[in-house]
């Protein structure tokens, strides 16, 4: 066989080996490229690949050549220091054999570096400046976030490489020992040589080990130099960040260690040439001693100098911590206003704040999700995952609402129905939403549904023209659309079902080789052999919206609570995306993984029907997201490009607000001495919820902020002084229009007691009439559930509102809103509606909403027994509701009302018998 044929044969074998060895990777690459291209993000996908190749290929060739030369040098040194038997393996063959581990090690090195560092290096070279310098080294914060981690990781990689070289050196000599066995000594001496083989290998490799040692100490010196920057994350002082001891002891220690490390490298060179290893090792030994002495000195200074005089020594460092922690969490621009609580509210004031009053929430999201799932799921395979809180203009009024998407949960299909056809071709999507105002309930104490049923029935001017949900939180299976098998759309009355064909743009064609490609990728032969799939069919993958965004941009942290939005008849998901890092200097960590910086940098919008995914930058002042934008310009859009209808529904995220509220418990204080002594620490207020006690949850509400002219959507949480129940401040985040993201702290007077939520809860318990009723309603197996206590500033006064739920003892019973408690000044009233409660305190107020009445399953609230007239009214109401439900085809509600009617008639019969 000629040489050219051998080369051709080897090339073919190599190609086959690569194809077989990387078959899955090749399939995944093609599939993922098609997926990113479908979304219009092919450049986002290729950026990673191109960067990894640009790094990996040069590193592969350089490292392969380096390993090869290194092994050749090892071989030559082995020959110089030993005599060998003539073995059957030629030098040419040995050199060829050396090439194999060189290529292997070069591949491992290049893939490891390119895989770990590609994004960090891109961030290094595309970094945006913060315009903020640290107070110790005067470096821009971008150095710590984008550059220092790359340098440290490169040094760590080099140390790993040095360890690898030591292992390679001894492994190579072990192999050479068997290939070219040494005969340097006479036969008796040879036995001794074999017994001390490790020492002899070390003697042979002394030059290489010296070189490795020199490089190691140089890298160690660089690490000691960079360790000074890590002092900005020190946790040993009075606060997080560099303290007195860090700057006056540890910093000097690092500089000394750096110098000794450099001298140690020089000492190794001296020891090699002078063969004086004892003297050469004195400096590395001194490094150990200096480290021990330095740490002891740091401990002594901290205990003997700093701790007795903390305020005097640590004040500038405490000030640094306060300033940079506030900046890291976006708290440096909180607007602080005094809120003088006069509690002089009148009925006229309530009339002037009707939008606030009408949007006071008397429903809680946890009971609401139960109600949605029991009353609106319609079929067992539908499920409401979560209730979202938003605001809409409904029939001309600005209203706060609950809404939840009705998703199809394939795990709830019956066992026999979980066939491949049903899961991938038939049951493909959820359908519609349920929507109810937060301030209204039915006569049964359930949410008053403004959008309900399947197909959606709307009693408002909000219409849903495209209710199908192909992309959501439960859409975990791939589906194939435009097949011969029609999709299940929604259930009709009886056993009939409506069917449909997908009309959207999502999916990748299964024509040509793609059908075989996705058969291999999904490991399902059914894709290839199914008669239902045609050349017009498309496969839709990665439909779970959180999986989807994490696949597109995994470097962003996503809120785990997406929320649904209705805009122009279509359904959209909005997901908040955060930029988070642990490298902000001097900022105290308040998140997992030592993370100490967060911004809500991105709003991701996903079309629930088409899966179209758009990234909008919501914080242009965040250098981290601007750096990502420099790297992935195709991915991000400005918030101004978001459709206005969607922009009206962006919310200040609770995740960010809750972190900021927790940080602000301590970091509202800017005086270092007061900060250190924690004289003015706040706590998130406590409340009673259900049967337990918890921190007050941050709450969205529509209200008119003190001093403002118009109601708006805000996020709010109250504070109390540390370990005290009275209220001291309220933090609010604005959500609407140009004021989005503005944080306002309302400070309450310190010279008077302002009731905190827990004080109101205790006053409720102490009210004889209320407590007697709570005891009565809790008897007989029924349970009383206390809802969230809302603190609502109106004019110069504070109003407290808490709904009461009752859950009957019967199986699958739902919690029902039966009473609303309102507290104002020293008054506490409990009535069937908020309107009646306000009227009792202030006189005539707004027109009344629907008054909830008590179903027969629960004790009556005003009296243990209903009179006949009340029962007749309730029976008529139940009959009307049942009739309406049958006309709408909502048989679940129909059965509920018929059962209720039956119970009322039984009670009427019992009353008449008495």
UniProtKB/TrEMBL annotation:
GO terms for cellular component: extracellular region; plasma membrane. The keyword Lipid metabolism does not apply. Its main location: membrane. The chain crosses the membrane at residues 7-31, 51-73, 94-115, 154-179, 209-232, 252-273, 280-301. It is found in: Cell membrane. Coiled coil: none annotated. It holds the Pfam family UPF0182. The keyword Metal-binding does not apply. Keywords: Cell membrane, Membrane, Transmembrane, Transmembrane helix. It is a multi-pass membrane protein. Belongs to the UPF0182 family. This is UPF0182 protein CLFO_00240.
């Amino acid at each position: 066989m000629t040489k050219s044929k051998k080369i051709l044969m080897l090339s073919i074998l190599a190609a086959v080996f690569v194809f077989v060895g990387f078959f899955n990777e090749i399939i995944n690459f093609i599939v993922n490229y098609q997926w990113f291209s479908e979304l219009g993000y092919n450049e986002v996908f290729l950026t990673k690949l191109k960067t990894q190749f640009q790094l990996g290929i040069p590193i592969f060739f350089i490292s392969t050549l380096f390993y090869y030369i290194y092994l050749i040098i090892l071989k030559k040194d082995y020959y110089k220091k030993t005599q060998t038997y003539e073995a059957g393996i030629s030098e040419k063959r040995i050199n060829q054999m050396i090439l194999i581990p060189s290529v292997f090690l070069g591949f491992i090195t290049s893939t490891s570096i390119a895989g770990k560092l590609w994004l960090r290096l891109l961030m290094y070279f595309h970094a945006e400046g913060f315009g903020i310098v640290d107070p110790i080294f005067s470096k821009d914060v971008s150095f710590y976030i984008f550059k220092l981690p790359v340098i440290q990781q490169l040094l760590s990689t080099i140390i790993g490489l040095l360890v690898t070289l030591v292992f390679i050196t001894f492994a190579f000599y072990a192999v050479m020992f068997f290939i070219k066995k040494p005969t340097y000594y006479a036969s008796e001496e040879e036995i001794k040589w074999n017994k001390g083989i490790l020492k002899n290998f070390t003697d042979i490799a002394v030059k290489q080990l010296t070189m490795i040692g020199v490089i190691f100490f140089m890298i160690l010196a660089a690490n000691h130099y960079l360790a000074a920057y890590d002092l900005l994350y020190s946790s040993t002082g009075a606060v997080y960040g560099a303290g007195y001891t860090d700057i006056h002891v540890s910093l000097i220690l690092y500089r000394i260690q750096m110098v000794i490390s450099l001298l140690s490298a020089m000492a190794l060179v001296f020891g090699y040439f002078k063969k004086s290893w004892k003297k050469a090792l004195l400096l590395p030994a001194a490094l150990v001693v200096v480290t021990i002495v330095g740490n002891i000195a740091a401990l002594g200074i901290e205990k003997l100098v700093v701790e007795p005089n903390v305020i005097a020594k640590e004040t500038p460092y405490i000030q640094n911590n306060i300033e940079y922690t506030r900046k890291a969490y976006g708290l440096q621009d909180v607007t602080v206003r005094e809120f003088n609580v006069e509690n002089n509210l009148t009925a006229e004031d309530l009339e002037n704040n009707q939008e606030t009053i009408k949007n006071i929430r008397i429903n809680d999201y946890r009971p609401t999700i139960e109600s949605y799932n029991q009353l609106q799921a319609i079929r067992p395979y539908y499920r409401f995952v979560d209730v979202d809180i938003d605001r809409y203009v409904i029939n001309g009024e600005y209203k706060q609402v609950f809404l939840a998407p009705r998703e199809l949960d394939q795990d709830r299909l019956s066992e026999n129905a979980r066939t491949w056809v049903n899961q991938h071709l038939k049951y493909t999507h959820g359908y519609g939403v349920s929507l109810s105002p937060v301030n209204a309930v039915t006569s049964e104490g359930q949410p008053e549904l403004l959008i309900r049923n399947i197909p959606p029935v709307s009693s408002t001017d909000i219409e849903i023209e495209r209710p199908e949900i192909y992309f959501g939180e439960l859409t975990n299976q791939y589906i194939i659309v435009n097949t011969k098998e029609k999709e299940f759309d929604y259930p009709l009355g009886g056993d009939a079902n409506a069917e449909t064909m997908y009309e959207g743009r999502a999916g990748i064609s299964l024509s040509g080789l793609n059908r075989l490609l996705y058969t291999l990728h999904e490991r399902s032969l059914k894709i290839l052999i199914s008669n239902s799939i045609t050349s017009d069919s498309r496969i839709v993958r990665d439909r779970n919206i959180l999986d989807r965004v994490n696949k597109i941009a995994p470097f962003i942290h996503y809120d785990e609570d997406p929320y649904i939005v209705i805009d122009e008849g279509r359904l959209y998901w909005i997901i908040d995306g955060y930029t988070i890092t642990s490298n902000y200097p001097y900022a105290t960590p308040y998140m997992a993984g030592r993370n100490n910086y967060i911004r809500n940098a991105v709003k991701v919008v996903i079309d629930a029907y088409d899966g179209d995914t758009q990234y909008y930058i919501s914080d242009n002042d965040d250098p981290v997201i601007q750096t990502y934008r420099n790297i992935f310009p195709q991915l991000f859009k400005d918030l101004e490009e978001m459709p206005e209808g969607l922009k009206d529904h962006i919310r200040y995220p609770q995740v960010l607000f809750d972190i900021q509220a927790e940080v602000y418990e301590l970091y509202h204080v800017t005086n270092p001495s007061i900060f250190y002594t924690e004289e003015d620490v706040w706590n998130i207020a406590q409340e009673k919820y259900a049967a337990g006690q918890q921190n007050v949850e941050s709450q969205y509400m529509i209200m008119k902020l003190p001093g403002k002219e118009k109601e708006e959507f805000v996020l709010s949480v109250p504070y109390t002084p540390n370990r005290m129940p009275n209220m001291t401040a309220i933090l609010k985040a604005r959500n609407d229009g140009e004021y989005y993201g503005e944080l306002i702290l309302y400070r309450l007077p310190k010279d008077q007691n302002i009731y905190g939520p827990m004080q109101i809860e205790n006053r409720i318990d102490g009210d004889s009439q209320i407590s007697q009723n709570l005891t009565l309603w809790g008897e007989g197996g029924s349970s009383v559930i206390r809802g969230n206590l809302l603190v609502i500033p109106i004019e110069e006064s504070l109003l407290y509102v808490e709904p009461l739920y009752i859950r009957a003892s019967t199986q699958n019973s739902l919690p029902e809103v039966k009473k609303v408690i309102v507290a104002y000044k020293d008054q506490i009233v409990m009535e069937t509606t908020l309107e009646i409660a306000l009227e009792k305190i202030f006189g005539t107020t707004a027109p009344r909403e629907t008054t909830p009445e008590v179903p027969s399953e629960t004790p009556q609230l005003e009296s243990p027994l209903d009179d006949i007239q009340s029962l007749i009214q309730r029976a008529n109401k139940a009959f009307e509701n049942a009739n309406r439900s049958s006309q709408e085809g909502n048989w679940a509600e129909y059965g509920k009302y018929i059962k209720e009617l039956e119970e009322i008639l039984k009670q009427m019969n019992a009353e008449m018998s008495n």
